[in-house]
Amino acid sequence: MSEHGQRRSDATRAPDNSGQGSRRVPMTPGARKVLEAAGRLFYERGIHAVGVDLIAAEAGVTKKTLYDRFGAKDQIVVEYLADRDERWRAFLVAYLERSRSPRSRILAVFDASRDWAEQSLPRGCSMINAHAEIADPAHPAYAVITGQKAWMLELFTDLARPLAPRRAKSLGRSLMLLHEGGLVAYGMGIFPDAIERARQDAQALVRAAVPSG
Amino acid sequence: MSEHGQRRSDATRAPDNSGQGSRRVPMTPGARKVLEAAGRLFYERGIHAVGVDLIAAEAGVTKKTLYDRFGAKDQIVVEYLADRDERWRAFLVAYLERSRSPRSRILAVFDASRDWAEQSLPRGCSMINAHAEIADPAHPAYAVITGQKAWMLELFTDLARPLAPRRAKSLGRSLMLLHEGGLVAYGMGIFPDAIERARQDAQALVRAAVPSG
DNA sequence: GGGTGAGTATACAGATCGGTCTACTATGGG
DNA sequence: CCCATAGTAGACCGATCTGTATACTCACCC
């Protein structure tokens, strides 16, 4: 929503706006423990399947502390997703910065996703999973979810631009498709090494689109 | 799991095994009303977010009828997914049968998905969404979900075989990636006409893989 | 030294959850 | 006629849900 053009900034440096309209919560030690436990439980079991009592117990914190910090479960969900998003962007940017050519930077996104998923995401993309549970667009977490995907699409488009200025939008969308497909196939275990396969297909796609790269 | 080769059968005629180990429920009028209401509510709001009282009320049926037919909410979930799967396969087979060339049959899958989604799936693939909510592989619905995706992957592989016998497995996986990516991008509204775009990319992929088609 | 902020411990409220129960009705087939 | 089947109506169960309340401790800081 709103104008999604975030200045002209190089895509590697725009780790802001992940919290968008949802002001973050002061991260006291208790709040941090809650967020860590909630993040783990939400991801492993699903958001609706995890109650605040369980979160508080797993965090080693009382419910009062939990509600003093977050006010409501919905806000914990927002912080969970915004935090995941923030850490993913930082992780990704590190991969992007150590690549130079436009081509290798595109592939670096898939490398980052593959490594990120293999080290901590056996159940696939948190945003896709959360979107399946949060149907109401008015939910405060909805903007975080769609914001992350919009950011990724814009990133792919920006990365494609140096390679094919006229077809950047189109190429960006194709890369996005492969990337999302890889995440889902990986998360559902449809076949092994799905993200790596998506990377290969992206490589072929880029090669075909810009034979002079 | 197990040997996933289900005979040599032509992919267009294998609408069985959708209910696998989960024996279906006798479809009395009351059961049908429950399934209709549950299907709509589960898809629109998510499985965990919908209670049995609401399902019974929306179906215009008492809770006793609901439990007499299905026994447990989990079983309603199984029937919901198995029913969706069954109807999708029938829908898809109709598209496949009116296409002749291997190439157009591959594209027909994307055509079917596009039309199927546009007419009734604003929130994307039911199986992907259900997988996000059902974390436990021991859940009776889990097999239906993974079974459907395995069937789709096998279908793509079978459709790719006449075009590229040696690379059928590889090409099938690439097509699967694009297809899943299209479904997710469509369901999350990442960009417009995502499935149609996936179809175009699939077309390009097939053309590149088999220039002599 | 008094106040503020962050925390523990625990009880409680009201709603909703999945699921069971009894009592009754209507229908259709041997 | 009779009995099984499929249904309505509605009370009820224990558990769990999100969220609030009271009372107290501890650390820090002006």
UniProtKB/TrEMBL annotation, chains A, B:
Composition-biased stretches (Basic and acidic residues): 1-13
UniProt domain HTH tetR-type: residue ranges: 28-88
Family annotation (InterPro entries): Homeodomain-like_sf, HTH_TetR, Tet_transcr_reg_TetR-rel_C_sf
Pfam families for the chain: TetR_N
Positions of the UniProt region annotated as Disordered: 1-30
Portion annotated as DNA-binding: 51-70
Keywords assigned: DNA-binding, Transcription, Transcription regulation
Protein name: TetR/AcrR family transcriptional regulator
Organism: Streptomyces flavofungini
Organism phylogeny: Bacteria, Bacillati, Actinomycetota, Actinomycetes, Kitasatosporales
